Amino acid sequence: xxxxxxxxxxxxxxxxxxxxxxxxxxxxxxxxxxxxxxxxxxxxxxxxxxxxxxxxxxxxxxxxxxxxxxxxxxxxxxxxxxxxxxxxxxxxxxxxxxxxxxxxxxxxxxxxxxxxxxxxxxxxxxxxxxxxxxxxxxxxxxxxxxxxxxxxx
Length: 153
Hints:
single chain, mainly alpha, Cytochrome Bc1 Complex, Chain D, domain 2, 7 helices, 61% helix, globular
């Protein structure tokens, strides 16, 4: 009987871990526009790469943004808008997912320069999320494309 209980407990923990991982991956999709598909990008070209960070550090930072106590790189309002949408449990799930995303080592000599177009895109996306706290990445990209068409780019 003890073996059955132990096996049941182990299976429950394993399934809960899988759920947290998959929900973390789903939650992270909203982060990809700035942080990259594998959390390998410097957000809007200036922040630190967050892939592989310890999950407790990520949760701490998200809570500081949510509570309005953090404004690193001038992204306080933008990140607060994103962090306020997450419950504490969702913060842990997405943080644990990000922790699994190990960034590739970058050869500093081959690091590419950000183009003027990328800077304009980053500014547009930042402004979009500052004005539209509940906006989606899909909407932001559609508006960017519309913006380019209207401005002859």
